[in-house]
Amino acid sequence: MITQQKILQLLADTECHRVERTTSKNDMDKFCQAICAFSNDLSGDGKSGYLMIGAYDNGELSGLKVDDTLLLKIANIRTDGNILPQPLMTVEKFTFEGGELLVAEVQPSEFPPVRYRGRVWVRVGPRKSPASEMEEKILTERRLSNVRTYDAKPCLGASLKDLDISLIKKEFLPKAVAEDILAEDKRSIEEQLASLGFFDLRYNCPTVGAIVLFGNNPERHVHGSYVQYVRFKGIDRAGDIIHEFKFDGNLCKSLPKIDTFIETSVSTKRPIPVSVLREKIVSTYPYWATRELLMNAIMHRDYDSNSPIQFYEYDDRIEIQNPGGLYGKVSPENFPNVSDYRNPFIAEAMKVLGYVNRFSRGVYRVQKELKENGNGEAKFDFSLRTAFRVVENISKKYFEEGFGADNPENTKKAQRNNQEQPENNQKTTRKQPENNQKTIKDEIVELIKENPNITRKELENLLNRTPNSIKYHLEQLTKKGIIKREGSDRVGKWIVIE
After folding, report:
1. Which of 82, 111, 319, 491 is deepest in the core (most CB within 10 A)?
2. Segment 229-264, tens digit of pLDDT
3. Is the pLDDT of residue 298 over 60?
4. Domain containing 12 — which CATH number?
5. Hey, CA dihedral for 27, 33, 39, 44, is it positive or negative?
6. Is 448:474 a contact under the CB 8 Å cutoff?
């Protein structure tokens, strides 16, 4: 981190490409644009940039008082996912006679171009501005020379024909690049993908990450790039296989299927009475926590391995195992407080597609949700060296009503009976949502009744669901004739058919 003496020198000097001064405390767009520009380091000098909050353009201090709220707000820029790839930065408060100063030190990224909300910002002298096509090309070439991760390597033998271009243009580019920038972009699809880290112009081929995310047949080039789900009867792999499924194909298409599968087939729900008039919904495995653990496995796995991700369900637990142990700076001692990314471009794309909400916070929320649901904390196994395994125990609360969760033998017996009598079990679980429990579809219908003009984004926020989950349920409700859409997506409204 920069020293106090160095700060005094920078304050006394004129503002340059390495320093941004401001007296504002709330202009988050300005702060993020500056951090994005410093990360891109267009000058290529390899030196850190400094955002100084609490100083005028002439270097005089404004008398700002830096509190914990401001420190936290600026520090959160690193992990909120609006700047991608994730910036390398530190934040610190300095105290002088004329006031306090908040300094964010930003290191140049090894994977430029860096984008803030789909737009590349650069710094030329004392000003910052959106990058031109030529400036973006310079940053792209610099990234190619810094390539170290497997997902950024050229997939030799593959070509543009191996990618689903229509999928990229329809589902990914509009989310990854600002609308006005995309409309003005006259470059070829190869150059557009190269600027996002998914095409290698030197070898004229897609990267490994592009094949995994958008490939027509990813396994042809990246063997083992799929998720293998198996439901075993009993508590180990010696039991009979009740159900198995292979989630293959590119991630852009398979992630929505995995998301829906967890919600509808793994996260079985039932109401637990809390009082005479109130019930609490408890799941065998909470949807969001289970989904987050599996998405982390997909994001952090070693794609150089031929092994798939194992998503195995037993009577008493779920085990998720992915190829590749802890990576980079992460160790058993500092996990999950320290994060590092084996596949930064795949991680960035999953954030853009809506499957990663915020970096470095998922494990804490997973543990909280699991404890509240009665599963106990997830157990992470670091002993496998070349693999990473997490175990999620089934919820004890789920079996409290009528199953005697205080008796483990009764719980196991009930679980076995559920598998041995599928017809009766299906009849029971189908009746519960109608009489005792609100399903996600019920909640969507109620919200539409309250506000026919409600948007998908509002439904996502109110129900804490992903875009693809809301899209899936709206399509199902429409197909069943429960709701219909009148007018366009932008100005139309929903109608509940009585």
Report:
1. 111
2. 999 999 999 999 999 999 999 999 999 999 999 998
3. yes
4. 3.30.950.30
5. negative
6. no
